[in-house]
Amino acid sequence: MRAEPCKPEARRGSSTHDDHPAGGCAGQAERRYEARIAEGLADIDAAAWDALVDARPGANPFLRHAFLHALHASGSAGDDSGWSPRYLTLWAAEPGGERLAAAMPLYAKAHSYGEYVFDWAWADAYQRHGLRYYPKWLSAVPFTPVQGSRLLAADEHAARQLLAHALALAEQSGMSSLHVLFPTPQEAGWMAEAGMMLRQGVQFHWTNPGYADFEAFLATLSQKKRKNIRAERRRVAEAGIGFRHLRGAEISDEDWRFFHRCYRQTYREHHSSPYLNLDFFRRIGASMPGNLLLVVAERAGSPIASALLVYDDAPAISTLYGRYWGALEHHPCLHFEASYYQPLEFCIAHGIRTFEGGAQGEHKMARGFLPVATQSAHWLAHPAFADAVERFLAQERQGIGAYLDELNERNPFART
Description:
2 domains; 11 helices; Acyl_CoA_acyltransferase; GNAT family N-acetyltransferase; FemAB-like
């Protein structure tokens, strides 16, 4: 399946294919790209893909060929699960061959599960008016609410051309909409310039200015927060629970099977189905071991809980990402210890600057995390619905602004 270059009429909410994009690069307009749709990454060279990831600000392990390919090859994100890969790629002709010039992780989505930017109300409004919202176009990393580049390209010119092709594809396909989740701030700006509507969200991140140890971090918190954290950690220790940190090749197949049991148990307790299967975890364990940390909780010599975290490529580790957690035994405060305090100790010990604890969760603030605004970009084909959503987003932005102000007033750190 191919998406050929096109130049549709410019109007609000539609794409514009401009060889001289606003803020673009002079002298690069002569470049021409061939646009193609790839139904997965099996036929795209991993080194070529990862070179595009490394070229853009906002690179992270979730954008790498190994992680995305594991999602599709394991069946966790594919046609059967409602995540149909339709990666948009741009190719440049060169002497003796062609070069992958830009790429966007793009899906034809049959639902809105696993996105963490909620548009269920939009889909419901379409249905009530006799219109189809699904399938829709979605650019994101499945099940991963982490900010990063969605316009993978070696330079701004190619990135902007990729965006123009994506909007043209969305318009010509007859599908309801295009949504880009958690792009970098720079890319969000380009999307707004191209006519997409921006939406804000809130996450909670922890930052490390260079703490000497966990106690040094605690000393920066208010007395009440400091006392509560010590009490939570004491309850876990008094239950006789200890922890092992396993990195990369230290994680055995037995560890993966145990972790997957814990992961499934979490979903079972919430009366839902897990997104990821054991094959996926085995695949990333084999293909990207240098990015993985498994925290295992043990009591009386037996594992009882675990948390999986992902971090940037060593040696320049700058961010730790909290991902999945589960327990086979329930103990007070065990979740906080395994998913927050143990990872924070890991960050401090290795000089990691940022810990992203995942989506939502005001409870993270009591543990030293601060609110951070995130963005997504949206294009809707139906003019009336686009107008309605634009009005909704304007009101929502005011609410998000007030919410951030309120959260910042509840800053957990000691006043100086």
